[in-house]
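Re: the request from the purification team.
They wanted to know what the chain is likely to look like in 3D before they choose a buffer screen. I agreed to run a prediction and write the result into the notebook, where they can find it.
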Amino acid sequence: MTCMAAAGAASPAVADSVPVGVPLDAVETTLGVAAPRVATAVPVPVVGAPEAPRHHTGDLLPTPLLPVLPIATDLGATHLTSPLPNLAGSPETDGEGSLDAPETTLRTRSPGAVLGAPLSMPDGSNFGIPNVVAPKLGLIAPELVGAPTALLGLR
């Protein structure tokens, strides 16, 4: 029991995003120009539990037949700065452009499928033999919910 408790306590927490700094120093030394600076985070998608199929009276197959999977992730904060020489045509107007995108949550749901059997439930008036019916086929549309924003600046 003690070993299991220690292993559970030592397991790392699940991260929503992994911060990444993009190394562009080689561009400066190779090309001789000032390189932009980029800092961002790689999102780590977290897959939720699929929706359980529901059985309805009179249907042979559950709905939805292909379950919908919810997926959530945090788009990490992104910061990009780049030198902008000679903005107005003279060296005195050298500046820096920046793009800042704060962290935001993004939720999505995968598409699902609904399928109806070509046979009905057993019909008592037809000696228990199922009737032939028009099969149903439908798709559950995917969803994407989030509100990413960005701020563009010039100094």
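For the purification team: DSSP finds two helices and 13 strands in the chain.
Please add any questions underneath this entry.
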